[in-house]
Write a structure and sequence with these properties.
By secondary structure, the protein is of the alpha+beta class. It has a single domain, classed as Beta Barrel (OB fold (Dihydrolipoamide Acetyltransferase, E2P)), CATH 2.40.50. The chain is elongated and about 60 Å long. The termini are far apart.
């Protein structure tokens, strides 16, 4: 085998080995607050939620995800309460990245 191929393989294995603890430690964080803005993406909605004491934060609601009890897609002036991952997911519209938000695992809402 070629020496360049072996070196590239070793570097790839090292990058994966270093990044695994970071990926596996993705914490689940609670969130709650009023939705102030929604932005459509290819893979869902990018929500801006006004979280008390922390200010506006962005969360990603994925298509096909059902909210707890009330089957309503998140919209402005709606309050959300739920859990999200702390690793941001990019929001793309076409091929343009419009932002990133923490993916929502589950949430309950007001109507």
């Amino acid at each position: 085998m070629n020496n360049k191929f072996i070196l590239a393989l070793i570097i790839l294995v090292l990058i994966i080995a270093i990044s695994l603890p970071v990926i596996s430690n993705a914490a689940i964080m609670p969130f709650g607050g009023a939705v102030t803005m929604t932005q459509p993406c290819n893979n869902g909605l990018l929500l801006t939620v006004q979280v008390p004491f922390r200010g506006p934060q962005q969360f990603m609601w994925n298509w096909g995800q059902l909210p707890y009890l009330m089957r309503v897609v998140p919209h402005p002036r709606q309050y959300l309460l739920g859990m999200a991952l702390s690793v941001p997911v990019p929001c793309t519209l076409g091929t343009v990245v419009k932002g990133a938000g923490m993916p929502i695992l589950y949430h309950g809402s007001s109507l």
